[in-house]
Amino acid sequence: MSLSTSSSFQCSFSATPNTDHFLICRFGYSSRLIIVDQILQQTPSILMGETLIPFSNLWHPEQQQSIEFLVNEFLGSFNLHSFASARRTICRKILSFALQFHNVHGSFKIEANVEHVEDLIIGEQGFQETPSPPRTTGAPESAIERLRKEKFDVLNKEEEIGDCSVCYEELKGQGKEVSRIPCGHVYHKSCILTWLQINNSCPLCRAPLQP
């Protein structure tokens, strides 16, 4: 089984005339499941936080440095220390957009939306329950072992569980064993065990698994 992850950042900007100068910076998170270069599923964006940064005159170097510092601090608060260079690039993009708009309008507000996209990439062989390589960011070993041993035999007939949000196939009637994780969401057992090798959270609600 070929299994890997990658991260990227997507940015979008907008500006509108306004009575006051300020920047609204939002940070969101989403994840994608990719198999053989095809995106099978992408979770909706989750807003992790936002900040409002007032400013006066963008032509002053001190003002530019202040905005760059505050945006960098805001993005750094989301445990993105390993993406320091990406944060600096995002800060420069925001400032560059603001300066371009400053040439046209006197007073305005800038909205900058930054999306952290995490990809789970599965190779051609797909999912298999095989011995896993050493993990660095996955769920605790005790939580995975507990889930591996648990038996989830019966689904409530009235319970609408839909599809497995990892492989995107139906949970009922596929002949595959299913598991319910502590937050209450249900997945194919092989799918969620593979997912938890590199992610310590529910694919849907992002709730972490405890040891």
UniProtKB/TrEMBL annotation:
<dbReference type="GO" id="GO:0061630">
    <property type="term" value="F:ubiquitin protein ligase activity"/>
</dbReference>
<dbReference type="GO" id="GO:0008270">
    <property type="term" value="F:zinc ion binding"/>
</dbReference>
<keyword id="KW-0862">Zinc</keyword>
<keyword id="KW-0479">Metal-binding</keyword>
<keyword id="KW-0863">Zinc-finger</keyword>
<dbReference type="Pfam" id="PF13639">
    <property type="entry name" value="zf-RING_2"/>
</dbReference>
<dbReference type="InterPro" id="IPR001841">
    <property type="entry name" value="Znf_RING"/>
</dbReference>
<dbReference type="GO" id="GO:0005634">
    <property type="term" value="C:nucleus"/>
</dbReference>
<dbReference type="InterPro" id="IPR051834">
    <property type="entry name" value="RING_finger_E3_ligase"/>
</dbReference>
<protein>
    <recommendedName>
        <fullName>RING-type domain-containing protein</fullName>
    </recommendedName>
</protein>
<feature type="domain" description="RING-type">
    <location>
        <begin position="164"/>
        <end position="206"/>
    </location>
</feature>
<dbReference type="InterPro" id="IPR013083">
    <property type="entry name" value="Znf_RING/FYVE/PHD"/>
</dbReference>
<dbReference type="GO" id="GO:0006511">
    <property type="term" value="P:ubiquitin-dependent protein catabolic process"/>
</dbReference>
